[in-house]
């Protein structure tokens, strides 16, 4: 399966081997247009950034996800933690280069 996420956090019990590789904005657009994906993006600000950069709309979902071997996730997240957790989910003044884009792949689960 293919997911879009706003975090590369591995859920409890998700032991295994993973790889996490950086992607460019062009890579992100190509990945999104390559086929169906399931959104696990929990924040509107992240979804707006993805759509503004690629033209691809991403649904908001806070559902938990555990990757299985062969699954991959496009991860789009801020490069830093917000000082005030109450700002999560609000409209932020964030520069385009404040975002990290990566591809997380589950290689093996224990």
Tag the structure with descriptive keywords.
alpha/beta; 110 residues; globular; Rossmann fold
Q: Explain this structure to me?
A:
This protein has 110 residues and is α/β, with parallel strands linked by helices. The protein has a single domain (2-109), classed as Uncharacterised protein PF08960, DUF1874 (Rossmann fold, 3-Layer(aba) Sandwich). The protein is built from two helices and five strands, in the order ββαβαββ. A five-stranded mixed β-sheet has the order 2-5-4-1-3, covered by helices on one side. It is globular, with a radius of gyration of 14 Å.
Shape: globular
Number of helices: 2
Distance between the termini: 19 Å
The fraction of residues in strands falls at: 25-35%
Nearest-integer average pLDDT: 89
Rounded to the nearest angstrom, the radius of gyration is 14 Å
- CATH third-level topology: Rossmann fold
CATH superfamily: Uncharacterised protein PF08960, DUF1874
Regions with little confidence, pLDDT below 50 for 5+ residues: none
Largest sheet: 5 strands, mixed
Strand order of the largest sheet: 2-5-4-1-3
Number of domains: 1
Question: Strand pairing plus helix content: what structural class?
Answer: alpha/beta
CATH architecture: 3-Layer(aba) Sandwich
Helix-strand string:
EEHEHEE
Total strand segments: 5
What is the helix fraction of residues, given as a range? Answer: 10-25%
CATH class: Alpha Beta
């Amino acid at each position: 399966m293919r997911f879009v996420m706003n975090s590369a956090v591995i859920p409890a019990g998700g032991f295994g081997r993973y790889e996490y590789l950086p992607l460019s904005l062009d890579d992100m657009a190509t990945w999104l247009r390559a086929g169906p994906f399931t959104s696990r993006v929990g924040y509107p600000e992240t979804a707006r950034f993805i759509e503004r950069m690629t033209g691809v709309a991403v649904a908001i979902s806070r559902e938990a996800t555990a990757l299985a071997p062969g699954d991959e996730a496009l991860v789009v997240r801020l490069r830093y933690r917000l000082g005030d957790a109450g700002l999560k989910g609000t409209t932020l003044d964030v520069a385009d280069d404040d975002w990290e884009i990566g591809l997380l792949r589950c290689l093996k689960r224990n």
